[in-house]
Design brief:
It is built from 2 helices and 3 strands. It has about 90 residues and is of the alpha+beta class. The protein has one domain. Strands 2-1-3 form a 3-stranded antiparallel sheet. The N and C termini lie far apart (about 45 Å). The relative contact order is 0.20. The mean pLDDT is about 90.
């Protein structure tokens, strides 16, 4: 299996992913799924949701082997957060 090449620039990839999530997927998954990962195929709009990033992506790739996958954490602006912060800080 060859390396999958991106079809979009980094900016377009992010814009498409955010738009699909905000307009089509978020209303369906927001309630009861806070903190879970949503893996979205940018070409079809299909998605998978799971507590684990790899599980969501694997299921999506099983249905769409050539998927261009954008991931989002429900209820957060970040999928991952690096670094620490003091308790009580914002």
């Amino acid at each position: 299996m060859g390396i999958r090449q991106p079809l979009y620039s980094k900016e377009e990839f992010a814009q498409r992913g955010d738009l699909i999530y905000q307009t089509q997927i978020r209303p369906q998954v927001e309630t009861g799924n806070r903190g879970k990962i949503v893996a979205i195929d940018l070409d079809t709009g299909d998605f998978e949701i799971d507590a684990r990033e790899i599980a969501a992506c694997d299921r999506l790739e099983a249905r769409h082997p050539d998927a261009q996958i954008w991931i989002v954490r429900v209820g957060s602006r970040y999928v991952r957060r690096f670094g620490g912060r003091a308790k009580g800080s914002v």
